[in-house]
């Protein structure tokens, strides 16, 4: 497999910044479908795909989220054209006979609920990371966010499905395109071991 062109890495990693404010430009619904169609191709443990995604695009939907947001996140989130609730299905393993038909993986999780919970949380987090990269590749600006009441979000949005929220990702187009100064990052020898 060949490396992608340098300008792709520049867009996804080097030039990307967390937006402070959003422009009025809407995100086309077709782009959200395209985004999900990239996310679903990314690898998860045993192809378990526990991630579930609620795309809040309407003002009424975003306002339902308001009481669950911490005060410091309200304005930044509500003004975003799209808020994605990255969630997971605790019963993700019910789809495994279809998603991984060669081995009976369903029983691994159905018989060990703590293991299933851990797997669902870890892999939905991974899928949220893929969402961030795919969104940036599609030209969207991305604001990942914690700082909200998970139990309240689950009650408001997922009572029927039984899904559980993990974190939020705001999507749109930033008002200001100049690259702001990036905060410091750890160097390789501070964060990595080569063994």
UniProtKB/TrEMBL annotation:
Source organism superkingdom: Bacteria
Enzyme class: oxidoreductase
Annotated ranges, domain Nitroreductase: 3-173
Keywords assigned: Oxidoreductase
Gene3D superfamilies: NADH Oxidase
GO MF terms held by the record: 3-hydroxypropionate dehydrogenase (NADP+) activity
EC number: 1.1.1.298
NCBIfam families: PRK05365.1
The protein, known as: Malonic semialdehyde reductase
Organism: Commensalibacter oyaizuii
């Amino acid at each position: 497999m060949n490396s992608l062109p340098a300008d792709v890495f520049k867009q996804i990693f080097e030039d990307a910044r967390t937006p402070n404010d959003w422009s009025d430009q809407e995100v086309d619904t077709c782009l959200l479908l395209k985004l999900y169609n990239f996310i679903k191709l990314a690898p998860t443990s045993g192809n378990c795909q526990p991630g579930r995604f609620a795309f809040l695009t309407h003002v009424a939907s975003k306002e339902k989220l308001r009481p669950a947001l911490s005060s410091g996140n309200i304005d930044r989130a509500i003004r975003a054209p799209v808020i994605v609730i990255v969630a997971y299905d605790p019963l993700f393993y019910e789809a495994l006979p279809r998603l991984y038909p060669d081995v009976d993986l369903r029983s691994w999780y159905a018989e060990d609920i703590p293991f299933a919970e851990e797997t669902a949380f870890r892999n939905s987090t991974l899928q949220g990371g893929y969402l961030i990269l795919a969104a940036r590749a599609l030209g969207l600006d991305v604001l990942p966010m914690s700082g909200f009441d998970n139990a309240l979000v689950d009650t408001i949005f997922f009572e029927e499905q039984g899904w559980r929220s993990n974190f939020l990702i705001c999507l749109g187009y930033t008002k200001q395109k100049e690259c702001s100064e990036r905060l410091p990052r750890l160097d390789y020898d501070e964060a990595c071991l080569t063994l």
